[in-house]
Specification:
It contains five helices and no strands. With 130 residues, the chain is mainly alpha-helical.
Amino acid sequence: MASLNQVLTVVSGTRKLLLQYFLLPRMFPVEEMEKPAADGKRSLRIWDAAPYYVKPTFWRRWGPGALVSRLLRIPLPGDEGDKYRPQGYRLADVGPDRMLGKGADIVRETVGELRKTRTGGCPFVRLKAE
């Protein structure tokens, strides 16, 4: 009797060979993020456990993946109102609710400083010298 390890090794090896030699490459890359909205907020298309920053669409709430998520009692986009921030995010706003809207000016200053001073290489060189 073959052990589970042997069976999984054969199955994954067979899958690898099929994908490598018999299937065509993807025509388009998988995009996990949507293009930024007019207000600069970004949304995700794919989620694992909690649907943070995922816009609720019909497919994401009632498609096959959503039905499996319902069976497993995993939250869906749009559940519990704005808890998972379905409107998207700006990079400066990522973090806990108490910090929302704070620090955007610091981020802008840091980005401007890095664009002026750093053109490549390790960004922590300045910290090593101090």
